[in-house]
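User: Here's a chain of 222 residues. Predict its fold as tokens.
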Amino acid sequence: MKYLYETHFHTSEVSRCGKVSAKDGIEMYKNAGYSGVLVTDHLGTEYLNINYKGENWTEKIEYYLQGYREAKKYETESFSVMLGAELRFDENMNDYLVLGLTEDFLFENEWFTHLKEKEFKRLCEQNQMTIIQAHPFRPGITIAKPHDIDGIEVFNGNKRHDSANDIAAMWAKKYHLMTTSGSDFHETEDLARGGVYLENFVKNSKSFRANLLAGKYSLKTL
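Assistant: Prediction complete.
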């Protein structure tokens, strides 16, 4: 498998914890030999209300999309920039990566961040999306019920957190969940620490999701 994609990538334009601009981050991943990234800036009620400017839902989503749209400017025929999200609901501090996300979905589903995990899972099923719990065994995180998610991030490359990746991998195997790997890119030291290899080149999150559902992928881990 020769096409490598980053599944967990933040921009300084939107994620306050992000220290690298979309432009610089994309150039770094091109130079690292990747074929694309999923831009997964933080998305949740608190982020929207406190960090993201706008008087209404549409304006807040326009703000949220800034990092993705800036990164998209540097897409090429051999490097894809795809829309994703690291989503947090109101009920706890869990984070979820969303595959198959579209701009239309974000604009048309006002305040879906108020949903519970199981409710969003149903919404995913209706919109050909997949929900992956990110770093589920970090301190302060509650592991989701297996039937409320599609998969889990079994390798998170962020050096500044103990994500207990080995436990996540065992959990995924036990409950037959989809697995992903991501660098959790916020700073330069996070570059190229994780990712997913595909057999073919893809241009959008829907195609990326389809490859994972078909099992046509492998994981990059350290």
